């Protein structure tokens, strides 16, 4: 099995207010192809036959909870770069980027509505 997930459907209370944040963040995370789907802001990853996608839609009664979506980065420098992009896009409650434990480097943040995200890099750590 080569794919571990197909897509993420995220809810926000206002799609119009969410669009500026996600139009900056999603392409930086690798979701670079904008797809027109009525009622959704949707970006796909490129390079896969059926690209993984991240969709955002409006649910006026949506209230963020403690769930978190974490994205993998290829290096600590990539975590740093994506953290700066998230801040520029309007992320709030940013924590990091910092090393949290041996071989684990991450930044945690929320979208403008409180939906939680993380970008992390993990290195293999010897257990000897």
UniProtKB/TrEMBL annotation:
<dbReference type="InterPro" id="IPR037523">
    <property type="entry name" value="VOC_core"/>
</dbReference>
<dbReference type="InterPro" id="IPR004360">
    <property type="entry name" value="Glyas_Fos-R_dOase_dom"/>
</dbReference>
<dbReference type="InterPro" id="IPR029068">
    <property type="entry name" value="Glyas_Bleomycin-R_OHBP_Dase"/>
</dbReference>
<dbReference type="Pfam" id="PF00903">
    <property type="entry name" value="Glyoxalase"/>
</dbReference>
<protein>
    <submittedName>
        <fullName>VOC family protein</fullName>
    </submittedName>
</protein>
<feature type="domain" description="VOC">
    <location>
        <begin position="4"/>
        <end position="122"/>
    </location>
</feature>
């Amino acid at each position: 099995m080569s794919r571990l997930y197909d897509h993420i459907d995220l809810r926000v209370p206002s799609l119009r207010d969410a669009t500026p944040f996600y139009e900056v963040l999603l392409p930086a995370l690798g979701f670079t192809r904008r797809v027109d789907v009525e009622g959704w802001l949707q970006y796909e990853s490129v390079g896969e036959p059926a690209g993984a996608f991240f969709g955002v839609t409006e649910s006026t009664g949506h209230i963020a909870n403690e769930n978190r979506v974490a994205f993998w980065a290829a290096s600590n420098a990539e975590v740093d770069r994506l953290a700066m992009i998230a801040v520029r896009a309007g992320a709030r409650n940013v924590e990091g980027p910092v090393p949290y434990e041996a071989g684990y480097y991450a930044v945690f943040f929320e979208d403008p509505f409180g939906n939680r995200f993380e970008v992390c890099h993990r290195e293999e750590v010897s257990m000897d």
